[in-house]
Specification:
Oligomer: single chain
Shape: globular
CATH topology of one domain: Rossmann fold
CATH class of one domain: Alpha Beta
CATH architecture of one domain: 3-Layer(aba) Sandwich
Number of strands: 17
Number of helices: 13
Distance between the termini: 47 Å
Radius of gyration: 21 Å
Strand order of the largest sheet: 1-14-13-17-15-16
Order of helices and strands: EEEEEEEEHHEHEHEHEHEEHEEEHHHHHH
Low-confidence stretches: none
Helix content: 25-40%
Strand content: 15-25%
Length: 442
């Protein structure tokens, strides 16, 4: 069975919300919508205090090529354009809207009927995806229209669809495949047309056999789409590892998947593309897994962007008394929240609640030179060395050792018997090296 070869680990899967159908979260009284929910430049607000808006209305316009439009997730009145503390603990410019109901923009098709045929030309598809503010839904939030705009001199051969969801606890993509598989398939055909490719490969780990069966059955109705069951191994959902597993090509250091003729999109992105192109619906809501071993009602929730993380936790039964940490994302790549009042964004795939006991770190001890971090690094890096270089602020050496190739999967820190905070140091080093490179270019 297919998988990537270099490195990888097998953390406890904990897919405890897998059998919970998607549940719609009530519309909040107030939403806090950040203008930066994507990689690249923040969008520029085009509404002011006192403006009345409808659900799906453009409220902030993408500023530059690598940026994304932002739309209102409710109908109501703009009460303020101000800085709000986001999930990272930093203050970000946001548009605050008081809801007065749920009046949608008239051009959105709200019927449940499947609209299969797409008459748009490739450029019009990419423009529509840009207009509707579609970004990568797997967590990276890279603007989708940029990925579909193949640079001159490059050629896309394969569209790779990521249905792996290898991060422990998260089940939002899994539920989406089970409940909206046909719409995903239409979204994949639209992405294929936009990219001008005739081959699409969907990768799903074999711990989701019902999703694999369903997607394989559906793919028989769509030309050029194949579905592949992959052997379970983390971090197989990363672009470079998924490409290696499916087409056995290696993306060179510092390069993008298009270098080897591939473009990778998440299943959630394919669904959002279907809604954008076929239903004229902007990206203003998404499915979020709320889970944890102590959570009363682990759930997969369809929530509007700008909804408070607290509101989602309440729907899942409230915050357990012994909570030690709340994480945005999964336990491997997610970030601990400083503020559960922060809003969800286009990139919020999950909210993980960990108990006091689970969230305690191991005692940090000296490195014993065991080499485990080298063995599990899926990028072939030397995590112990990169961490040491970062700790000692040896930025030039860190750059020379390809610190920017680190995808921050956390495998090294997970497997370290000495409890060393390898990823923490590497993240600091990556940020500093990237900053130095930007300064050098300017």
């Amino acid at each position: 069975m297919k998988t990537f070869k270099l490195g990888g680990i097998h953390p406890e899967e904990n897919k405890i919300s897998a059998q919970q159908p998607i549940e719609i979260v009530p519309i909040p009284q107030t939403v806090y919508i950040p203008v930066s929910q994507h990689l690249g430049a923040p969008a520029k607000p085009i509404v002011e205090k006192g403006d009345l808006v409808k659900t799906g209305q453009l409220i902030a316009k993408g500023d530059g090529f690598i940026s994304a439009n932002v739309h209102s997730s409710v109908s109501g009145k703009v009460v303020k354009v101000d800085e709000v503390v986001d999930y990272s603990g930093y203050r970000r410019q946001s548009i605050i809207i008081e809801s007065d109901g749920d009046e949608w923009v008239e051009t959105i098709d709200r019927t449940p009927d499947l609209k299969r045929e797409c008459a748009l030309e490739p450029k019009a598809i990419v423009d529509k995806i840009n207009e509707m503010g579609i970004v990568g839904m797997g967590g990276a939030t890279f603007p989708s229209h940029v990925k579909l705009s193949v640079p001159q001199g490059k050629k896309a051969e394969y569209l790779i669809i990521n249905g792996v969801e290898c991060e422990p606890y998260l089940t939002s993509d899994y539920r989406l495949m089970l409940e909206r598989g046909r719409e995903i398939m239409v979204g994949i055909t639209i992405l294929m047309k936009g990219l001008k490719v005739d081959k699409a490969m969907v990768g799903i780990e074999n711990n989701k056999p019902d999703a694999v069966r369903l997607m394989k059955d559906l793919s028989s109705e769509f030309k050029g789409i194949t579905v592949h069951a992959l052997r379970v191994k983390y971090p197989q959902g990363a672009e470079k590892q998924l490409i290696k597993a499916l087409v056995n090509r290696e993306v060179p250091s510092g390069k993008l998947p298009i270098e080897v003729g591939c473009v990778v999109q998440n299943v959630g992105t394919a669904f959002a593309v279907y809604e954008a192109v076929q239903k004229n619906k902007p990206l203003f809501e998404r499915i979020v897994t709320v889970s944890g071993k102590t959570v009363k009602k682990p759930s997969n929730l369809l929530a509007r962007v700008g909804t408070s993380i607290n509101d989602l936790i309440v729907v899942a039964g409230g915050l357990p008394e012994d909570t030690g940490k709340v994480i945005s994302g999964g336990p491997m790549m997610g970030r601990a929240l400083s503020n559960t009042g922060a809003p969800i964004t286009k990139g919020t795939s999950g909210i993980l609640v960990m108990s006091e006991k689970e969230s305690k770190r191991k005692k940090t001890m000296n490195c014993i030179r065991c080499g485990r971090c080298l063995n599990v690094c899926a990028m072939g890096l030397e995590p112990f060395l990169l961490a040491n270089l970062s700790e000692n602020q040896s930025w030039e050496e860190a750059e020379a050792e390809h610190i920017l190739d680190c995808m921050e999967c956390g495998s090294c820190q997970y497997t370290c018997p000495s409890g060393r905070p390898l990823l923490d140091y590497i993240r600091v080093g990556k940020n500093k090296v990237a900053q130095i490179i930007r300064t050098r270019k300017n």
